[in-house]
Amino acid sequence: MQVYKGILLMNGVGFESNMYLIDKEVLVDTGTGLFFPQIRENLINLGIDPKKIKLIVNTHCHFDHVGGDKSFRDLCNAEIAIHENDAQALEEGDNNLTLATMFGKKIKSITVDRRLKERDRIKTSNFCFEVIHTPGHTPGSICLYESKKKILISGDTLFSDGIGRSDLPGGDSDLLRESLKKLSKLKITYLLPGHGMPKTGGVNFLLKQILARMK
């Protein structure tokens, strides 16, 4: 499903996260990996060569977003990027912070090639996304913001109808509130969340409503 010219959404099934393929070059999140063969086949059926994916960006370290990292990296030889505050959990295969145990699974350690920081850039042929550090759901949660096109890929920080949990290991409700305040200062037209359907328009009003309830 194309959600913006050059951005393909692969909807999450059940607990799977959404996955976004940008310019056929950058993949944002990889789901649990449990449906990797089907996802690979779907891409091929769409005329997309998965081996051309060169970078995997994880919005945070939870299993439902990173479980497919190893399968995609083995297929594509792609680099893996995650915020520096979540990198250790991924590299150590921390089943507590990655929540793998909640899914009845174990996560193997994954080498992180790029430790992202605030204001880093993720560039493709037609997009330039800025890394926005938005802790609260996890210490290293990030959003990706394309200022010219007003697109926000929000991971589990912000959904089309609410926000991510802050009561899980590594979560912090105060930090989440501050992260949402940061997002409220951006001009957002297209919201591409980690779960659920995208939202076009009304995003800043949604943030205003959420923040008012969090006071």
Features:
215 residues, alpha/beta, Metallo-beta-lactamase, Chain A, 7-stranded mixed sheet, 6-stranded mixed sheet, 25% strand, globular
What does this structure look like?
The protein is α/β, with parallel strands linked by helices and 215 residues long. It has one domain (2-214): Ribonuclease Z/Hydroxyacylglutathione hydrolase-like (Metallo-beta-lactamase, Chain A, 4-Layer Sandwich), CATH 3.60.15.10. It contains six helices and 15 strands. A seven-stranded mixed sheet has the order 1-2-3-4-5-6-7. A six-stranded mixed sheet has the order 8-9-10-11-14-15, with no helix packed on it. Strands 12-13 form a two-stranded antiparallel ribbon. The radius of gyration is 16 Å and the shape is globular. 44% of the residues are buried. The mean pLDDT is 95.
In short:
The protein is of the alpha/beta class. It has helices spanning 36-45, 63-66, 69-76, 84-92, 173-184, 203-214; strands spanning 2-4, 7-10, 19-22, 26-28, 55-57, 79-83, 114-116, 121-123, 128-133, 142-146, 151-155, 158-159, 162-163, 190-193, 199-200. α5 packs antiparallel against α6 (203-214).
